[in-house]
Design a protein that fits this description.
alpha+beta; 7 strands; rod-shaped
Length: 342
Amino acid sequence: MNRAWRPIATAMFQLDVAVLLGCWALELVLVTLTGPRPLIPGEYVVGVLQFVPLLLLVRFTRRRVDAGRPLPLGQLALGVAVAAALAGITTAYPDYEAANIGREIYGNLLLVALIVGALERQARAVRAQAIAHEMRETTSRLDAELKEARARQLEAQIEPHFLFNTLANVRQLQRTDPGTGLEMLDDLIEYLERSLPGLQRERTTLDEERALLAAYLSLHRPRFGGRLHYDIAFPDRLLGCELPSMMLLTLVENSLKHGLGPLPEGGAIRLSAESSGEALLVDVADTGAGMGAGTGGGTGLANIRSRLALRYGEAARLTLSLNEPRGVRASLRIPLTGTSTA
């Protein structure tokens, strides 16, 4: 029994049915209070039947609007006129005289027009909101895909940039110190064996980045000799934390090229990491030449800032500051993700 009444109850609570039943109930109350005689049971049935044409019109109209095919104004007006005529003829019961029917049709016409117009406007508004929501979703998805494509393009720029610099160093050493150049070439092959499998990954862990950095710095020992000292101090509890690939390598490359490279005595590079709330903080500090006029404007740093903005928005940043007693400190702050042991 409950299952049989469920579809009826669902239909009763539809907006158009509720509005029509409300109008019918209000009409009965007004007629009962102001009428010269009490209504007979048959007139209650007639009162309900006068809204049947209107209900059919509203349902037909809303289905077309929901399907994206709204009724033209001419068809809608014709439907209102037919519904009002049928409702008026039904309401004229039992006095089917021309004057009486005309009066009832005229009286129902305004009611029909108001209700249908309100429901039609509501249906069109719902459809417009659905279309607008779909457009926003499409725009958001395309924007995300565009950002992802741009991020991949920026990531792709980093590895060729690094390889170009390294091969240029190998070429220079081949001219001045062939033995050291050959040793550096062997280190490059070992580094590529470590890094190539992960080039397609968008993210890496601090542990994987530590191994890459160690291989990268070993690659440059032949060129710098005793002028290069480095220390990678990443706490074990943070080694599972994730960060965008190649970022730390770019910062270390920047320290070698612009910090330690110009100094005859070289210097040291220290990498450290810590967590602060929901952020991972990684510092790359060198004791190189310090901040000059062009510090912070290179291709590598520009790529890092663009990638951070694309992936994290304002939740991540790269800042440069003076290191004590000499050099530059690059500080990377990104949202803390991955495995971290407090």
